[in-house]
Amino acid sequence: MKHLIVGLGNIGDEYARTRHNIGFMILDAFAQASNISFSTCRYGDVAHGRIKNQQVVLLKPSTYMNLSGNAVRYWKEQEGIDIDRILVAVDDIALPFGAIRMRASGSDAGHNGLKDIARALGSSAYPRLRFGIGGDFPRGCQVDYVLGEFPPEQARELPARIEVAVDAIRECVLAGMGSAMCKFNNK
């Protein structure tokens, strides 16, 4: 089986450590733990590897977050991957910092990156891993919050939380979304 694992984020050094780039951070950690590396390709940075008997294609789109759909559609079609074998890692302000919620499908919950992927694929029936970044910001300041960096206390905890997300992706690839949801949701 082949899986497309997508991490959402924004390109550029100014965004590298922001909350909105947690998808990129998770994929970087996954690639490092799996001893695979990214190459710059059409629509993003891509890595190919194996986890036991499963093939994985990692994608960090080179489009901005809100325009990720074309990159996902291109690599889905390029690699011949079914929609239920796509997993998108994304930030979520509705979850407390570091919490993980996996779903086999669902709404975009107002996330423009997920909305654009659903538009490009013609369906929202693709799996996702939502990583909580919290939502402690004043009304009207959401953009500044998600494009801001994690505060020092969270930054110290971040590597351990990312490791849990990496383990959740590995579980999803090897045992399926149902098993991953049971083991990792709200951990």
How would you describe this structure to a colleague?
The chain has six helices and seven strands. Helix 1 (22-33) packs across helix 5, helix 2 (69-79) crosses helix 3 (112-121) and helix 5 (152-175) packs antiparallel against helix 6 (177-184). It is 37% helix and 22% strand. It has 187 residues and is α/β, with parallel strands linked by helices. It has a single domain (2-184), classed as 3-Layer(aba) Sandwich (Rossmann fold).
How many strand units? Answer: 7
Strand content: 15-25%
Which percent bin holds the helix content? Answer: 25-40%
Sequence stretches where pLDDT stays below 50 over 5 or more residues: none
**CATH-level-4 superfamily name:** Peptidyl-tRNA hydrolase
Average pLDDT, rounded to a whole number, is 94
Oligomer description = single chain
Short description:
The protein is 37% helix and 22% strand.
Give the topology.
Elements: E1 2-7, H1 22-33, E2 39-41, E3 44-51, E4 54-61, H2 69-79, E5 86-92, E6 100-103, H3 112-121, E7 128-132, H4 142-146, H5 152-175, H6 177-184
Parallel strand pairs: 1-4, 1-5, 5-7
Antiparallel strand pairs: 2-3, 3-4, 6-7
Helix pairs in contact: 1-5, 2-3, 5-6
Keyword list:
37% helix, 6 helices, globular, 7 strands
